[in-house]
Amino acid sequence: MIPELGHYALVLALALGLIQSVIPVIGARGHDSALMRLGSSTALMQFFFVGLSFLALTISYVTSDFSVASAFENSHSMMPLIYKITSVWGNHEGSMLLWVLILSLFGALVAAFGGNLPATLKANVLAVQSWIASAFYLFILLTSNPFRRLAQAPAEGRDLNPILQDIGLAIHPPLLYLGYVGFSIAFSFAIAALIEGRIDAAWARWVRPWTLAAWTFLTVGIAMGSYWAYYTLGWGGFWFWDPVENASLMPWLAGTALLHSAVVMEKRNALKVWTILLAILAFSLSLIGTFLVRSGVLTSVHAFASDPTRGVFILIILVGFIGGGLALFAWRASTLKQGGLFAPVSREGALVFNNLFLTTACLTVFVGTLYPLALESLAGEKISVGAPFFNLTFGPLFLVLMALMPFGPLLAWKRGNILGVAQRLMAAYAVGIVALAVAFAVESTQSVLAPFGVGLAFYVMAGAVVDLVERTGLFRMPLGIVARRAAGLPRSTWGTAVAHFGIAVTLLGIIGAGTWGVERIVALKPSQTVSLADYDLTFDGMMSRSGPNYSEQAAKFTVKTGGETIGIMQPSKRNFIARDTSTNEAALMTRGAGQLYLSLGDTNPDGSIAVRLYYKPLVMLIWLGAIIMMVGGGLSLSDRRLRVGAPKPAKKPAIKPTLQPAE
Length: 663
Prior knowledge:
This protein is an alpha+beta fold. It is built from 21 helices and ten strands. The protein has helices at residues 2-30, 33-62, 69-74, 81-86, 92-113, 119-143, 167-196, 201-232, 243-268, 272-294, 308-332, 347-379, 387-404, 407-410, 418-424, 426-443, 450-472, 479-488, 491-516, 620-637, 640-643, and strands at 518-524, 529-532, 535-546, 551-561, 564-569, 572-576, 581-585, 587-591, 594-603, 609-616. The strands form two sheets. Strands 2, 3, 4, 5, 6 and 7 form a six-stranded antiparallel β-sheet that branches.
């Protein structure tokens, strides 16, 4: 009964979505306030019914109702409760239901908190959002029904894919989807503005908080996915340039460019055409990522197995929305009025420069990801595009962008003084040079370029601090005045500085882990010791353990440094009986910003066991930087100017006639 209720709720959501797709647009064209208000009520009801549908599916998993096909394929009665819940979105059908749940959530948020939007714009935004939702409701109901029943209910489920039975799965997909789907609001605002023909600074103010929220969630989602792959797959890496990884990076790059472009549009009423295009592209790249994961064209640990029908359906959705959006843009772009002018050397100019580098980097990733797939599909040729290509193309663009990052916030609007900014960054240069010199002195033998990267990271961090110092007058004014100026700074200013600081921290972690990491592969018998960096690890032997739905063979290692025991590490191998599948569970020991990492291999005929050992200095800074960026996004999002939306233009006072004296 509960699965049927969930299925029926999804059908009702589709019906509401179709109504919302048409009626508010008619109301906006006829300026009928009643029809326009219908968009808000249907958006809220859509979210209610999709939420009810998702709850019904979750109950089916939690209660181990294996008459539901997706629960049978992806759950097990002995799984811990947390994994029963996360297995809801650990498969294609359930993850698509989560996708539309978040899509309807954003529509409901616009309906509930978009009171300061012009009525026609709000109606069109909700209608466009419902076009997207209705397309995916149809996709789920016709090709990916999560409530499909089995004629005979099996006694037990097949279990969730073992590598997905991890706490990271409880966090990573929802955060990633909040980012992916969040860009749908920016897309809806862009299409609605093109339909209405109204694109101005107020529009940029309205779209910024939604874009910022999506960017923040996507940042954390990508970071969580990176960390999950790092410790779950046993390979010790944090980024593989896997096509599905790239599918999440591309909308992040486009969204970052959109954020900066929207600032210029809001402040100077400029870059209208470019900002609208970026809003369309950010969500279009999210749709492309959805196609890559679910079309069956990729074989990846991140991809869902899929049949051709699903791939064709998603391709139709992709072509419809991307093609339709770009066609509307091409038709209406020429009618957009140009905004304010600015000099090349200005904050606007710096943000334009930032956009050029970000979009070029995004194009690089796009070509490197899709060209091999297109070549194989059209010509039958297989080529491999991996880390060397991306490191040589994306890497230099990213580093140049980082080097110029501290200049932007210190430049004045409209016309800046680059020499004056360079002088104010003298302290940042000094910090970077000192860091470079220290890195050369400590680790110059392994890489000549890495110390320059360390210097760059510290220079960017110091540049973010210099920006706040300049704005608050620290070291130039009494502390009381500094405190008042700091408290009066917009939170978006703090957020920008914190986010820039965070990306430099991530860069430092990438350099440390990628350049100075140590790896060994050895075969050990009990009581033997292996040394790695400054650590000695003694293999104490194997032990057997059992979990709720698996059996486990764990190895015990005693870790010492300087002759002193600092802890125990227990990597293991788990055997999941239901799927007859084994997984490696790596053991991690965090030491400052670095980590010791152990992963077990096969047992040899002589009784020894293969062990892969890593020491990754500074690796934790990769994900710490992402958390700092998230904090920066949250600070910017809490800025009152974004929370209250765009101010309504003041009415010009009426000109009173003056009496002329009689001649």
